[in-house]
Amino acid sequence: MTWVLWLLAAGVLGVAEFLTLTLVFGLLAGAALVAAVVAGAGVGVLGQFVAFGVAAVAGLVIARPVALRLMTRTPLTREGSDALIGKTAEVIQEITATRGLIKVAGEVWSARALDESHVIPVGTLVDVMEIEGATALVYPRELLP
Fold it and tell me: How far apart are CA 53 and CA 45, in angstroms?
């Protein structure tokens, strides 16, 4: 009947993980599930605690650092409008601090000058520095170092 207590502990720890998102309580919940399986197999209380301890240490020492590293890794590819950052575009309507149009990656985008003092004429090549909503903030290529 101790397997029920281990399942209850796993449920409580799972809820705690859901509320905290620390990757600690979830691994302890997994260790409690291992202990529940061991208890269900008829192993004594000491064996259950040993199984819980081994699973918990393995999770916290091995699995958690790997999971944290994978979660903090930046994506290798950018998607959507973020993929336009760093691309070269051509000015198709004069760009000022408040308006303008560019053609980038085959699409026409509204644009503003990153440096508000710049007025960028038609035909100039610019680099997309940022995206704010549906507007690209651009900087002329010839002024880049």
Answer: 12
Beta bridge mates, 88? 127
What is the rounded distance in angstroms from the CA atom of residue 114 to the CA atom of residue 139?
6
- As given in the structure block, the two tokens for residue 1 are 């009947």
pTM above 0.85, yes or no: no
Angle of helix 2-20 versus helix 25-40 axis, rounded to 10: 170
Of 2.60.120.10, 2.40.50.140, 3.90.1170.50, 3.30.310.50, the CATH number of 80-143 is 2.40.50.140
- What does the alpha-carbon distance between residue 110 and residue 120 come to, in Å, rounded to a whole number? 13
Residue pLDDT, tens place only, 56-83: 999 999 999 998 888 888 766 777 788 8
